[in-house]
Amino acid sequence: MTVHNLYIFDRNGVCLYYNEWNRKKQAGISKEEEYKLMYGMLFSIRSFVSKMSPLDMKEGFLSFQTSRYRLHYYETPSGLKFIMNTDLSVCSARDTLQQIYSTLYVEYIVKNPVCVLGQTLDSELFSSRLDAFIRALPYYSPRAG
Q1: Which of 45, 96, 99, 106 would suit a FRET pair with 133, their CA atoms being 20 to 30 Å apart?
Q2: pLDDT tens digit at each of 145 positions of the chain
Q3: Residues 118, 111: Cα–Cα separation, whole Å
Q4: pTM of the model
Q5: Start-to-end CA span in the chain (Å)
Q6: Cβ proximity of 104 and 71 under 8 Å
Q7: What's the CA gap between 36 and 15, in Å, rounded?
């Protein structure tokens, strides 16, 4: 079990934060291009899910999986998007993403007068606390393959 990476996007598709832990394969494109592709894919999937759902989906799109990884998605009421890629053994990371938002992002970014909302997250404190949080997850393993 492992966590591969985490993206945080604002409501306009700007990648505010990215980190990786156990990512085995790089995309072969620039990080900026990868961020655009990730956000575009999420935008398309969310639109597709909302149009095709037979019910009025309160929470909408939550995750999807391939044969190699599972993408977990959480969107805040303000439009921030938290995306975590894990291996297939992690069934749901929604609570984890909500916790990252409420206990780490709000505490170390929103309440920090030095951090400007809507700009790249350059807080060392946020990064170190997030790293410690991810490494303490029950499904994190540094040697997962």
Answers
A1: 45
A2: 688 999 999 999 999 999 999 877 777 889 999 999 999 999 998 888 878 777 766 667 888 899 989 999 999 999 999 999 999 988 899 999 999 999 999 998 998 888 777 778 888 999 999 999 999 998 887 765 5
A3: 14
A4: 0.89
A5: 9
A6: no
A7: 8
